[in-house]
Design goal:
The chain is α+β, with helices and mostly antiparallel strands and about 575 residues long. It has helices at about 1-30, 35-55, 100, 115-125, 130-150, 165, 175; strands spanning about 75, 85, 200, 205-220, 230-245, 250-265, 270-285, 285-300, 315-330, 330-345, 350, 355, 365-375, 380-395, 405-420, 425-435, 445-455, 460-470, 480-495, 500-510, 520-530, 535-550, 555-569.
């Protein structure tokens, strides 16, 4: 009885020692160890001899290889049967009185979750299970499921739970997590301009239309010296068509304006025009362009030609045409452009009745421009340009007996630049001369400045600068004509999502050749549009214009205010 108690005591002491040694060691080697594995380890030590014998022979006389770690040196093997001479479970302790228990060979228990599950299945098939085996089988089943989800070849590492399950404090409330679109759902992109016209699809063109109906008052609608005011109705229609082609591009613009006084001084005039442009990509870095236009309107109030006794300004019709070809050769940029302008003036109606012919003012101007530029960078191309042409008058000799046809020669130097949406445009300075056929008339020559610049300092704001130099003829006896310099600076700003505002200031100076005469003027304008919807908006416009001159009867000023409705599609 005492011997049996002594044996029991040794067994319990060995179990306790095995638990203390196996727990930290197994945790360091394989990560987290389930409680069932501890019980199974103890159980394996008791049945190890029978299991080892079973592993050595599969019943058919074929020895089954014993489990060996994949890493060399994990266990030291020094006998022909593959038994480890030293391990965490069989290292003898000289001070241990139960050395025979610790000297047993280590357990052949598989280290992978899948192998452990396979062993548990074999035990279930071999006979009844104990409570320890059932608990271990359930643990192995869960480990196998997790390991299979991670890797077809399990490493035996049991994945940890999600951090939001282990630490509930890490969970985010739904209202703070934000809304996420469903997988595959198209992302919603905000429109840059939600009040831009949608347009209509006509063939391969996108067509947009705008109709303004305004009513306002002008202090001097005819822009004459000491002119009277009037309340005016103004209707303006504009149509734009832009191509949707993959390679070439085309654009068509048309407009029509009708002004009529409702009270005050009598005013009734019409203005209309249409223009089109076509850009072609020929290939091999060749390009071509075509353009044409037509307009009809009353002659400008600032025209240099005065018609004595005229009841109204005569209508002026203008035809324009352009054809050009360009070639890029390395960094060299070459372009040749031909322009034609045809101007025709209707007869002027006189105050006392009758008309005055303006046939001697009709002319055709044909010019050719050759430009050569060099690409310093993709955004900067300096260039030099030479222009040659001739102005043909319909009448070789006008009503005053002068031959006014002239040859035209111009030289310019400038640069074009394109820095994307922020800054783009072209500026040029030069000299222009028209040599008139009649030797009694002085040549028209002078300094020229031309350019077009668009600058966007921030989104929703566009600053534009336009400038040009033009030569105007005349039929006044002994006078050659004049040079006009004109420039406009405008700022367009989106004040709110549905409110846009525009402010501009313009100035011009006209130099009469052969005399000391000049005209100078200043124009200021501000307008705003408040969109009620994408199709309807309210607009308002205020304008002031003044002109001073050292010539008699050419000074004038006018102020006007208009308000109305804008419709677009």
């Amino acid at each position: 009885m005492a011997s049996r108690n002594l044996t029991t005591t040794r067994l319990l002491a060995g179990v306790a020692l095995a638990v203390l040694v196996a727990w930290p060691a197994a945790a360091q080697l394989r990560g987290r160890v389930e409680e069932g594995e501890i019980y199974e380890t103890v159980l394996d030590r008791q049945v190890q001899p029978q299991r080892a014998a079973a592993l050595e022979d599969d019943g058919a006389g074929i020895p089954t290889p014993r489990y060996r770690p994949a890493s060399d040196g994990a266990l030291e093997v020094d006998d022909e049967e593959g038994r480890a001479s030293r391990s965490l479970f069989n290292e003898p302790d000289p001070a241990d009185p139960f050395e025979d228990i610790g000297a047993r060979e280590p357990s052949a228990r598989p280290v992978s979750a899948r192998q452990r599950a396979e062993e548990a299945r074999e035990r279930r098939e071999s006979g009844p299970q104990t409570a320890i085996e059932r608990r271990q089988a359930e643990t192995d089943r869960r480990a196998t499921s997790r390991a299979s989800a991670l890797d077809p070849v399990s490493t035996g590492t049991v994945p940890t739970d999600r951090i939001d399950l282990v630490d509930p404090g890490r969970r985010l409330p739904v209202e703070r997590a934000g809304r996420v679109n469903a997988i595959g759902a198209p992302s919603v992109v905000a429109e840059e301009d939600p009040y831009a016209p949608l347009g209509l699809r006509v063939g391969t063109f996108d067509v947009t239309t705008t109709l303004d109906q305004l009513i306002g008052h002008s202090t001097n609608p005819d822009f004459t010296l000491n002119g009277d005011g009037a309340t005016i109705s103004e209707t303006d229609l504009r149509v734009t068509a832009v191509s949707d082609w993959s390679r070439h591009s085309a654009r068509i613009d048309a407009y029509g304006t009708y002004r009529k006084s409702l009270s005050g001084v009598e005013v009734e005039d019409e203005e209309a025009g249409i223009s089109g442009a076509l850009d072609l990509e020929i290939g091999d870095r060749w390009g071509a362009s075509l353009a044409a236009g037509y307009s009809i309107r009353p002659e400008s109030a600032s025209s240099p030609v005065e018609i004595p006794g005229a009841a109204s300004r005569p209508l002026r019709q203008t035809l324009t045409g352009r054809a050009g070809i360009a070639k890029d050769e390395g960094k060299l940029r070459l372009a040749l452009t031909g322009d034609v302008e045809r101007a025709m003036f209707d007869d002027a109606e006189l105050v006392g009745g009758g008309t005055l012919s303006q046939e001697d003012r009709n002319y055709t101007l044909a010019t050719a421009k050759l430009r050569a530029g060099y690409e310093v960078s993709p955004a900067l191309v300096p260039f030099a340009e030479v222009e040659y042409g001739r102005r043909f008058y319909d009448l070789t000799v006008d009503s005053a007996g002068y031959e006014r046809s002239a040859n035209r020669l111009g030289l310019r130097a400038g640069t074009s630049f394109d820095f994307g949406e922020k800054l783009s445009g072209e500026v040029a300075l030069g000299w222009l001369r028209e040599s008139i056929d009649d030797p009694r008339l002085d040549d028209i020559s002078g300094f020229t400045a031309d350019g077009s610049v668009a600058w966007s300092p921030q989104r929703g704001t566009i600053v534009r600068l336009l400038g040009y130099t033009a030569v105007d003829g005349t039929t006044a006896p002994g006078e050659s004509g004049s040079i006009l310099y004109s420039g406009t600076l405008s700022v367009e700003r989106r004040l709110r999502a549905n409110v846009t505002g525009t402010a501009s200031v313009g100035a011009y100076y006209r130099d009469y050749v052969g005399t000391n005469g000049y005209d100078q003027g200043l124009i200021g304008e501000a307008s705003a549009t408040w969109w009620l919807s994408r199709y309807v908006g309210l607009i308002g416009r205020a304008r002031y214009e003044t002109q001073e001159s050292n010539l008699p009867g050419r000074g004038a000023d006018a102020a006007s205010v208009f308000a109305g409705v804008r419709l677009q599609r």
